[in-house]
Model the fold of this input.
Amino acid sequence: MDSMDPIITSYAIFMDNLINSAEDVSHLHYCGIIEHWLGSDAEVADSFNKLCRGVVFHNYIGHLSEVYKEVNTYFKYKPNAWKADLRNKYFKNPWAIISMVAAIILLLLTFAQSLVYAYYRPPNS
Done:
């Protein structure tokens, strides 16, 4: 690392890219990534979003450039983006997951019943 690396700037912009809402701050706090002593998660999100307003910075410069590349590579792969989208939109609630598993089991049982009936018909009496 050379003396001109923008360490603080790259960290602040990286956190600004991660934090867009109070829910993001809450999740990062829950995971032990950040700690704050401000009044609310919304204030932290607002602070990070205002902190980097107007800053010109290239993601390929600084000590977090590899992290940017890895994150971008991960989300450019479509199945990862679809999985994240499904999880965030439809499976936030545990009941949604339980109902999905139940629906899949019912479909499999229906399919098995159709196969059994198609191949093992009772003889005509």
User: Anything to note?
Assistant: The first helix runs from residue 7 to 18. Residues 66 and 72 are 10 Å apart (CA to CA).
